[in-house]
Fold each of these.
Amino acid sequence: MLDGFVPWPETFATRYRECGYWTGRTLGSLLRERAGTHPEAVALIDRDRRWTYRELDQRADCLATGLQRLGLAPGDRVVVQLPNTAEFVQLIFALFRLGAVPVMTLPAQRHVEIEHLITLSGAAAYVIPDAHFGFDHRTLARAMKDRAPSLRHVLVVGDAQEFTALQTLETEPEPLHGPEPADVALLLLSGGTTGAPKLIPRTHDDYFYNAAASAQVSGLNPLTRYLVALPAAHNFPLACPGILGTLHAGGTLVMCPDPSPDTAFPLIARDRVTVTALVPPLAQLWLEATQWLDDDLSSLQLLQVGGSRLKAETARRVGPELGCSLQQVFGMAEGLLNYTRLDDDEELVLHTQGRPLAEDDEVRVVDTEGRDVPEGETGELLVRGPYTLRGYYRAAEHNATAFTPDGFLRSGDLVRRLPTGHLVVEGRLKDVINRGGEKVPVEELENHLLSHPAVLDVAVVGLPDASLGERTCACVIARGQTPTHSELIAHLGAHGLAAYKFPDETRVLASLPRTVLGKVDKTALIRDAAS
Ligand code: OOB
């Protein structure tokens, strides 16, 4: 078992197996099953490349053997930072089959995040594109080689320069020992905890269920064509049902390099896409774009929206303007997924964020003392279940407070539960700004801002925003010279922070309001900023 992984207690593991959640299959076998029954069906389309299930299956095997020859072993962590391409899908299946553990990072992440994730995971390898949207990932890899002693290999899709080209590793497949179903299959990034970003271990057993049950609840089948529009490494497009759910259902993936309507709409029209997943600001943008783009979107049957709260007004427009059904998804990389069901009343689909995927998702809604609130009242969502983690990876200290003594995750989300079991997300307790689905860890950003010489003190708050839901505002107390917004952004960029974490605006104040206990009064800051 991977060191630093917290397993489910044996009584729970037994129950989850007996109840059929954990079927003892690995993610590598998910692809193998379909390649056996439907070898000639198209598994994925990436621009002009079309790979059948047979081809994807074989390519995953060839690469898995190549990675083993390179010296990677079961349990080794591999930081994966690839855009939405065929190689991403091939690589993750190669790693699943080898039993090496992908650490799923986003293409937008930079030195700060990647160094932290390589160091925390003790990664042996780092896989990058040569360049993506004008950024040369090899420069980032060079810096990582200097700073992260665990890193033995940098593998590049494209022009590898001094590193190893990923495609050159493919070789005649040899039998692999492979992982056990209870082993950690991958490490996902947490969007939601305080302090430094955390890693979420997901096992083959639990993630297989996550993908297969999601595929069922979203009605996927062999005719499904799923557009991978959000970054593939995020839990939502990866397995809710996303890439893994689509392949489990025998459907086809359509890889989309970026989720803008200009890129996505022509792909939907050309490849007859039936389903995709978006965050609310993108859903809103797609709705607007139907006014000026005339691509044929008539193949689209289902739009999933999640990641942050979708406004009912936007939800209501999806059917009439995009001509497809809407499914709200309230999920978290930690596990728990809530979906509105395809046969739910319109009221529920428009106004709730869905209900739990599994019968055995134990959801509690509690007050600040940890007592269950009366039905229909708002409180913090606690969860325990067959695909919700029991501990963040290598984070014993954090785990001591992030979970109740009986193993419920404290989600930090404030929800209200309806008699139907559907949840409405009302807010949050955790100190994270949800910038339209992208999670900005407040403490991390504050620390980076504090390292600027002209910043004496800072408080970062989320302000209401019509399209993002929330935008990031840095309230700064200057030291001597007043820093400008662009100076602060340049400082964060030079530090190597991902751009989605940059503040949208900076306000320079004379002092920060404090509570009686001396803590920064963020409620007052938000109120003042709004008035
Ligand atoms: C998804 O996963 P993460 O890990 O990036 O972020 C999880 C957090 C939740 O705890 C909640 O605070 C927020 O994002 N959230 C929503 C939401 N979906 C997620 N808040 C309001 N309404 C929603 N529909 O964001 C994620 C993972 C899998 C599927 C979908 C989203």
Amino acid sequence: MSIESVLHENRVFEPSAEFVKNANVSGMVAYNQLCAEAAADYEGFWAKLARELLVWNKPFTKTLNQDNAPFYKWFEDGELNVSANCLDKHLNTIPNKVAIIFEGDDGNTQEVTYKDLYHRVCQFANGLKKLNLSVGDRVIIYLPMGIEAVVAMQACARIGLIHSVVFGGFSAKSLNERIIDAGAKAVITSDGQFRGGKTLPLKSAVDEGITMGGCDVIEKVVVLKKTGLDIAWNSNNIWWHDLIADVTDTCEPVMVSAEHPLFLLYTSGSTGKPKGVQHSSAGYLLHAMNTMRWTFDIHENDVFWCTADVGWITGHSYVAYGPLAMGATQIIFEGIPTYPNAGRFWQMIEKHKVSIFYTAPTAIRSLIKASETTPEVAPKNYNLSSLRLLGSVGEPINPEAWMWYFENVGGGRCPIADTFWQTETGGHVITPLPGVTPLVPGSCTLPFPGIDIDVVDETGKNVPWGTGGLLVIKKPWPSMIRTIYNDPERYKTSYYPVDLGGKIYLAGDGAIRDAKTGNFTIMGRIDDVLNVSGHRLGTMEIESALVANHLVAEAAVVGKPHDVKGESVVAYVVLKGPRPEGDEAKKIVAELREWVGKEIGPIAKPDEIRFGDNLPKTRSGKIMRRLLRTLAKGEEITSDISTLDNPAILEQLKEVVK
Ligand code: 6R9
């Protein structure tokens, strides 16, 4: 997206008077008041919310402990259980309210009430208890989108197990690395999954991942029978239905400290292996709830649909935890937006009378394309009048896509919450509030109340509005990352770098605030992290995968703007043998793409591979990525290349293997 186009954006959409009137945060005055409360008494602001929104078994007396900064602790002497806050709490008030409407790939639906879900979670938790797992043990969840994925997460939370969900699109190798890093004792998976009309394997990746070695800690693999696909069976495997056959469907929640880790979620960083982002119980849940309330303006009769998979943070905060803790009715969808056709999302919104819809720009852009080529699947063919609020997440939304979403899906009447946040922030940190904020296409607008977010220069000093810089959060907040599992040093250096004084959180994105309104526009990652279809991928991760192939001597990976995916992956590769040409080059490209799919997952496969006898390097041997990015875009290099050791190489690297 061109930053210029957002900075010169002068369309402004005010919330309607009716929306303002009924909203949970009603009007700019109310918003300013919340921000002022947080500024006047920061800890008091959060303590009040934590008392109001969470059910505590033992109330906390201390709000924030900064003794061992940046390892902050929130509400640390309080005790609660997250699953009890999502389920038990509702048993007396809304037991028969529908918690989840599940729609399968094939269009069949299933409804689960809060009471049903409570019993299913309790029963599965009782099953897990038989597996010799104790509070604090790690459990990997590798399941397709579905009720069971939420049941598994909630069941772990119920008995103090720390889950780590691995997205079903990640490979056996990725699974293996996460099992080892987390020291997981059990894996919960399914025989297979349904996607886009196909039955695909899943458990086979678990088997393969475990046999790659280093997974001796795994004691059990629990297998959900989902598809009936033939699978290999090992002595430590147990069917989900057998595990719960002889247990009751009530289970006392285990009370844990507010700071007890609720989950680890692996995400890409700029260097090395993915990092296990560790979240807390109380602070995390608090923000998931409060953002449901203020950003999504959740009301009793809403039908909420967040399309994210539970393998990502969005599916944690806005599928598995936030909506349940708020007692909302939500949709969970197993399939893909293009099956049986690209009208699926709109058809489902119509069918289930969805009122709040939250998805990613990449999905919107692909559906724009689809409705241009196949007008029958355009949103106008569906009754979308149930919608009252839209959301966007995962990457910057370009103004054109924003306008299309606003007009074609939201009928010009639904505010769009362009929510900026990260795996590490736990929930929204910059976002419009729908009954408050004048919307500007392409801008995520203003800080969520209580989040002290700003833009600074390389030394940590504030830059004036209108000047670009680094996005930082200046005070700790309850739902923040607590550490990188197994690597506290990396937590400090990645997020609290000494250059910025060591006391402010560095988000890793560039940003600029509008000179007049203070609205934020995100300018993209400042590190070597790519955002492909809203998924974070480290360039180093893909490079390591490539050089692990026996043919490859060296590789450099950069991102290139892509009109649907946001960014696409371009890899520059030097082989151990001679630079390949013609069919030979094509064959190796296919092999390397397949290889990266196996090493990381299909989402990381390079869209383009280019071969050179070498890579452009400075005389000191540093790869000049800046040049590689220019070449990837097909642009001429106009910058200074006098420090380049081997300029002749640039010609070779212009050539795309087709
Ligand atoms: C929630 C999530 C985080 C990175 C983040 C930024 C990008 C997310 C955005 C956005 C512009 C938005 N990002 N939301 N950029 N506008 N509304 O996506 O978490 O997977 O950890 O990615 O995504 O670059 O740093 P995660």
